[in-house]
Amino acid sequence: MNSEQLKKQVAEAALAYINDYDMVIGIGTGSTVNQLIDLLPQVKNRIEAVVSSSEASTERLEALGFNVKALNQTGDLSLYIDGADECDAHNRLIKGGGGALTREKIIAAASKQFVCIIDESKCVDLLGAFPLPIEVLPMARSFVARQMVKLGGQPIYREGFVTDEGNQIIDIHNLKILDPVELELKINQIPGVVTNGLFAGRKADVTLIAQNDGTVRTQ
Ligand SMILES: O=C(CO)[C@H](O)[C@H](O)COP(=O)(O)O
């Protein structure tokens, strides 16, 4: 199976979690989620509204006629479905490859169940081979980068990229993330950091993993 087929397969498996009527669900961002959004019309009668983690997903959802609401209008959500860049055996994630990490983290925190959808190439023993995205206030970018060097990382500015919140991203290479919960908290304490792409404190509850043999594994 090629990569797009794997994404579609895991997106199809996620539809089973949209299993009630009048649901208000959170929807993430990225190419795997795009496959999910394109399948959502199949379960439209169960979805009252959607909270979206990016302008890109909002545009795609609205084009299909979904009612996209702000989180401030909905209260907590029963379900959030999103992709990831890396996932370890405990459903701890690195996210933010698409730059939507801040809204994603807020929606994940506000959701009772977080279902992550990935293919098996994203499963790792130790998080950190994928560069860890950090969203920073623009004036703090170089300062935060210097702090990350002290933590053993190699920061690369995602040049030309502006987040939906008007901030910037630095991607931290070569981090050995032995304690993701501790590192997530530590990075978030650096002044100027909006948030970082570790989803370890609030990790996925369930990860659906599309495997090359054509099956979907639930972790
Ligand atoms: O965190 C994300 C966006 O900020 C995405 O979920 C992550 O980058 C995975 O994307 P894709 O499904 O395209 O591989």
Q: What would CATH call the architecture of the largest domain?
A: 3-Layer(aba) Sandwich
Hetero groups in this structure are: ribulose-5-phosphate
User: What's the number of domains?
Assistant: 2
Please state the oligomeric state of the protein chains shown. Answer: single chain
How many DSSP-defined strands? Answer: 13
Largest sheet: 6 strands, mixed
The secondary-structure element order is HEHEHHEEEHEEHEEHEEEE
Shape: globular
Q: Approximately how much beta-strand content do the residues carry?
A: 25-35%
Report the average pLDDT across residues: 98
Using only CA atoms, what is the Rg?
17 Å
- Show unreliable segments: none
State the CATH topology of the largest domain: Rossmann fold
Structure write-up:
GO terms for molecular function: ribose-5-phosphate isomerase activity. The protein is an alpha/beta fold and 219 residues long. The chain has two domains: 3-124 and 201-218, Rossmann fold (3-Layer(aba) Sandwich), CATH 3.40.50; 132-196, ACT domain (Alpha-Beta Plaits). Helices cover 28% and strands 27% of the residues. A hairpin with a 5-residue loop joins strand 12 (206-210) and strand 13. Helix 1 (3-14) crosses helix 2. The protein is globular. The model has no long low-confidence stretch (mean pLDDT 98). Residues 28-32, 82-85, 95-101, 104 line the site of ribulose-5-phosphate (5RP). Ribulose-5-phosphate is lined by residues 28-32, 82-85, 95-101, 104.
